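Input chain follows. Return structure tokens only.
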Amino acid sequence: MTEKENNIKDTTNENKQENDEIKVVMPEATWTTMPQEEFKEQPEYLQVFTNFYIAKFNQRDLEVMSTYDVNSNMVDINHYLVDNIHFTRKELVRHALQYHDNNFHQLVDEIVHQDHIDQESMTSYEDWDNWYEERRNNFSTSLS
């Protein structure tokens, strides 16, 4: 055997020894999924109001609504809407109510208190829209 062949054989043996000494064992992959989020049951009038509110938010038409915001609820709601605007409308309604139902309740409670409406009878988008336009027409000066 020549010296070159001996060097190649020695190198091969060294590599084999290193491979035997350092063995990498990969663990089996395991999948973990997050549990499905459970949403609180909300009254229909509050779901409809939230949908209406989000529509007005998207239209940048919340001037009338701001007159009913005595506890800065709109700040919390609007901040959440801006951060989660990528949701579809239906998803956004569900998620906004999940985390800010108290804010929406307080807004509706103030509307009921000031305007003496029956929130249970406000079951459609059109009901809230008609109420909103009536309030807008009652202002002596334009809000926008």
